[in-house]
Every structure is written in structure tokens, then in C-alpha cells.
């Protein structure tokens, strides 16, 4: 998270393009806040992090994995148009 806030740089070379994509996307929002949530307090993120080291045939029933053709930093992202009273 410190990398996104500009406190420190990205050291791991494969993450440089993902960092650049986050910075690019952050500019699309009027206001954005990043908050660190420890893994012990974020069960969903903990499960997602374990998927990277799990064989697909060992996934629990009801868990589906989408194989992407390109890294996320190369994909176009569509922003939904929200209509209604502004908060």
C-alpha cells in the first residue's frame, strides 16, 4: 500500500506494471482511499491468496476460476455509470 501512496517504490520488477495500472485507474476517481486490512481480518483476501498455490482440482465445490488471456494491467476496464442521488 505504501507504493500506491508514493511512500516507497516498487521493488519487485513483475509488479511495476500493476503499480502503474493502479496509479492510472486512481486518477479516474474524484476521491480514493486505500486502507490496509491485515490478512487475519480479511478472510476473503486470505482465501484468494491461497488460490495461487492451489491445484484447480483441489478447489472446494462452488469455487470457480477464470483463466485470463492477458495480465490485468493490459486489460481495458469499463467503469459503470451510476445514476441517482450523490453521497
UniProtKB/TrEMBL annotation:
Transmembrane segments: none annotated. InterPro entries: RNaseH_domain, RNaseH_sf. Residues 3-51 form the RNase H type-1 domain. The lineage of its organism: Eukaryota, Viridiplantae, Streptophyta, Embryophyta, Tracheophyta. This is RNase H type-1 domain-containing protein. Pfam families: RVT_3. One of its GO terms (molecular function) is RNA-DNA hybrid ribonuclease activity. It comes from Lithospermum erythrorhizon (Purple gromwell).
Amino acid at each position: 500500500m505504501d507504493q500506491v501512496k508514493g511512500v516507497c517504490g516498487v521493488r519487485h520488477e513483475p509488479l511495476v506494471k500493476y503499480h502503474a495500472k493502479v496509479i492510472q485507474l486512481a486518477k479516474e476517481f474524484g476521491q480514493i482511499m486505500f486502507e490496509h486490512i491485515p490478512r487475519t481480518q480479511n478472510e476473503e483476501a486470505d482465501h484468494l491468496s491461497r488460490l495461487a498455490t492451489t491445484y484447480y482440482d483441489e478447489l472446494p465445490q462452488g469455487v470457480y476460476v477464470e483463466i485470463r488471456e492477458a495480465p490485468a494491467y493490459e486489460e481495458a476496464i469499463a467503469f459503470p455509470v451510476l445514476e441517482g442521488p450523490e453521497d
